[in-house]
Design brief:
Elements lengths: L6 H26 L8 E7 L3 E15 L2 E5 L4 E6 L6 E2 L4 E5 L2 H36 L5 H34 L1 E3 L4 E3 L9 E2 L5 E6 L4 E8 H13 L11 E5 L10 E6 L9 E8 L11 E14 L1 E3 L4 E3 L2 E7 L5 E5 L1 E6 L2 E6 L6 E5 L10 E5 L10 H4 L2
Parallel strand pairs: 1-23
Antiparallel strand pairs: 1-22, 2-11, 2-15, 3-10, 4-6, 4-9, 5-8, 6-7, 8-10, 11-14, 12-13, 12-15, 13-14, 16-21, 17-18, 18-19, 18-22, 20-21
Length: 395
């Protein structure tokens, strides 16, 4: 090529053409290079399978003896000795205290002597009446004599009846000097010492508490009562037939009491001081493991949540707008799903609204997700390798 310009102009022109060609080459190569897409996020999912789930409700409760009997002295006198061992179990009819019997025995002896005297007088009056009747019929004696004889006989008979009553009363007082337990149970401490004079103002001796059956008292708050009614009305809770719940007792160390009970009383009155309703269960306690005023936990078994949806607690997240879960769509993309949660059930949530059968809920890996992100799905499995279901989640 010949250059019609000066030498400097030709050099500048050639450099400009080379620079323009290089820029065009760079622009063309940049538009053709592909952009790398982010890799799929590995997640573990649980497929929703609604099913009937047994519901167990736990309450803090306190035991109460079904019959706590105050042992009191029925007569006045000196306490001679305590016979039982304080705090030990006692049987019905077992002697607990002995009072000084001598004054009462003297009253029995006096009443018996009075009865014997009046019975002798009655025999004399009976014989006198028997002699008077024929003599009056023969007009040997007047009608007045017969009336006097009959009156004397009736007075003597009344005196005998009165003496028998006095003797029976004295014998009762004597029997009351030996104080026994009216029931099987566990005894308390002795409220009085030996040698104490007992009277109407100082008659309390001890208490015997029946151990079997045992009452279990717990409270249901007003809010819980209303929640249960709402869930039953909405069909999310089904009570056992006849509301016959089974009551299980959990002891302080977490062990389960072998005997099961049932609810036998529900107080219809609302307690304004505690804001609760009193519920009472009764349970057999043949070995005396449960003692009065002991704190335990009760489990009400028998209710069912029909067609329940359960998801692990770690799958449920919360934002300013409420609870939500991540689900995997049919296209393999992540999607946020708002949900309404119910109560806890073991390590899972009951989901009231937002999920349906077949939905795949992200259990692990949700923190790396964003809406529309591609996911690599792994089905959740338990330790035995079987797919997790609501039944395993509820244990």
């Amino acid at each position: 090529m010949s250059c019609r310009y000066t030498r400097k102009s030709c050099v500048f022109l050639r450099l400009s053409l080379v620079l323009v060609a290089a820029l065009q080459l760079v622009a063309c190569s940049g538009s053709e290079a592909p952009v790398d897409a982010p890799p799929p996020v590995a997640v573990t999912v649980l497929t929703v399978k609604p099913e009937d789930v047994p519901v167990t409700t736990i309450f803090v409760a306190q035991t109460q003896s079904s019959q706590a009997v105050n042992i009191q002295a029925r007569v006045s006198g000196f306490l001679e000795k305590r016979v039982y061992t304080e705090g030990a179990r006692v049987k019905a009819g077992q002697v607990l205290f002995e009072m000084d019997k001598r004054p009462f025995q003297a009253q029995v002896d006096g009443a018996a002597a009075a009865l014997q005297r009046n019975e002798a007088a009655l025999e004399v009056a009976r014989a006198n009446l028997a002699r008077t009747k024929p003599l009056v019929e023969q007009n040997a004696l007047s009608q007045r004599d017969l009336d006097d004889a009959r009156g004397q006989y009736e007075q003597s008979a009344a005196a005998v009846a009165q003496s028998k009553a006095h003797l029976e009363s004295a014998q009762l007082d004597l029997s009351y000097a030996t104080i026994t337990s009216p029931v099987d149970g566990v005894s308390s401490f002795s409220a009085v010492a030996d040698g104490t004079y007992l009277d109407a103002m100082n008659s309390q001796l001890t208490t015997v508490s029946v151990l079997s059956p045992m009452w279990i008292n717990f409270s249901l708050s007003e809010n819980d009562m209303e929640r249960i009614r709402r869930e039953e009305k909405a069909g999310r809770l089904r009570a056992p037939e006849g509301d016959r719940f089974t009551v299980e007792i959990e002891l302080g160390d977490g062990t389960l009491f072998p005997q099961k009970g049932e609810i036998d009383f529900a107080d219809p009155s609302y307690n304004p001081d505690t804001g609760t309703f009193l519920i009472r269960a009764v349970v057999d306690n043949p070995e005396g493991v449960l003692r009065p005023n002991q704190y335990v936990r009760t489990r009400l078994v028998g209710a069912t949540r029909p067609n329940a949806v359960l998801v692990p607690q770690r799958a449920v997240q919360q934002s300013a707008k409420g609870h939500f879960v991540w689900v995997v769509t049919d296209a393999g993309k992540a999607e946020i799903r708002p949900v309404d949660v119910g109560n806890w059930h073991g390590d899972s949530w009951f989901i009231d609204e937002g999920l349906a059968s077949g939905d795949r809920v992200v259990v692990d890996g949700a923190l790396r997700l964003s809406p529309g992100a591609a996911v690599e799905v792994t089905e959740a499995v338990d330790t035995e390798g079987a797919s997790l279901s609501n039944s395993t989640a509820s244990k």
